[in-house]
Amino acid sequence: MDLADLEKRYRAYVDAYRGADGRLPLMMELKLVHTFKVAENSREIARGEGFSPHETELALAAAILHDAGRYEQLKKYGTFRDSDSVDHAAFSRKVAEEQGWTAAWTPEDRRTVLEAVLHHNKRDVPPDLSPAEAKIAHSVRDADKLDIFRVTEERAADGDWRNGASTAFWGLAPAERPSPEIVAAILESRPADYRHVRSLPDFVILQAGWMSSGLHFATSRRLCARRGHLEFRERFLREITGPSGRADVDAVCAKAAEALAAAEREAR
Ligand SMILES: [Fe+2]
Predict the structure, then answer these.
(1) Whether 162 and 119 share a structural domain
(2) Domain boundary among 109, 144, 179
(3) What's the gap in Å between 268 CA and the centre of ligand 1?
(4) d(C-alpha 256, C-alpha 208), whole Å
(5) In terms of residue numbers, what domain contains 119?
(6) CA–centroid distance, residue 85 to ligand 1 (Å)
(7) Rounded distance between C-alpha atoms, residue 134 and residue 139, angstroms
(8) Distance between Cα 265 and ligand 1 center (Å)
(9) Is the pLDDT of residue 250 over 90?
């Protein structure tokens, strides 16, 4: 598997979306940056978890391809909202296949990487994946979540979420307290249903929930701890909820803190 060649072809594909001035539309540029941040995270996870060189290659290939369909999704439908357009993971797999990026790989490698791409945004990794396939799928899911933490923090920093019509968080606005369905799912270590996301606190607390049950690898939880993503969410949640939401925020953050501390202890 020639990763340098894959990256070259991927970048050449993205170049076709540049304007006459050579620039990508901003939303596409951000996806390109995100993609290679996810690849960096994948490399760190692979190193921390002792992936073999071949597993590391598969994880990096899956990271590079996981959002390959985002450019065409935005061009064709004008949105990154899957519910208003296409499942971007299935679309990314289609683009990867159509572009012939996987043609020279062994059938096993192709299946492993494309299944990881397909399932990167789903609630669960399906049980019919082999352990080797599931490992790569989990690595891209964790690497993606770690970068979503970063992206969320950048958006929060620009402050325009204060305006309920803000596009930074899809019009999600502060609320007195997060949705009880989401809080219950997190506290019971069940995957929360994204359909219950009704407010900005729901969106942010869901990410705090990833820290206790969404991140598969201990290395991912350690990276999360070292980057201060929980502290950020704790502060931000207090800012965007009212006094009636405090108990929920505290309970979810305490559970996340325990999971991150356990991962740190494991490393010693
Ligand atoms: Fe994605």
Answers:
(1) no
(2) 144
(3) 33
(4) 6
(5) 1-144
(6) 14
(7) 8
(8) 31
(9) yes
Question: Is 149 contained in some domain?
Answer: no
Q: If we measure between CA atoms, which residue out of 99, 95, 132 comes closest to residue 116?
A: 132
Give residue 144 CA to ligand 1 midpoint distance, Å.
Answer: 7
pTM for this prediction: 0.93
pLDDT digits (tens, 9 = 90+) for 34-62: 999 999 999 999 999 999 999 999 999 99
Percent of the chain residues topping a pLDDT of 90: 82
Q: How far is the CA of 35 from the centre of ligand 1 (A)?
A: 9
Ligand 1 centroid vs 87 CA: distance in angstroms?
9
- pLDDT averaged over the chain? 93
| Ligand 1 center from residue 57 Cα (angstroms) | 19
In 3D space, the residue among 152, 211, 198, 146 whose CA is nearest the CA of residue 172 turns out to be 198
76 and 167 inside one domain? no
* Amino acid sitting at position 265: R
Q: In residues, how long is the chain?
A: 268
131-170 tens-digit pLDDT: 999 999 999 999 999 999 999 998 888 776 776 666 667 7
Number of structural domains the chain divides into: 2
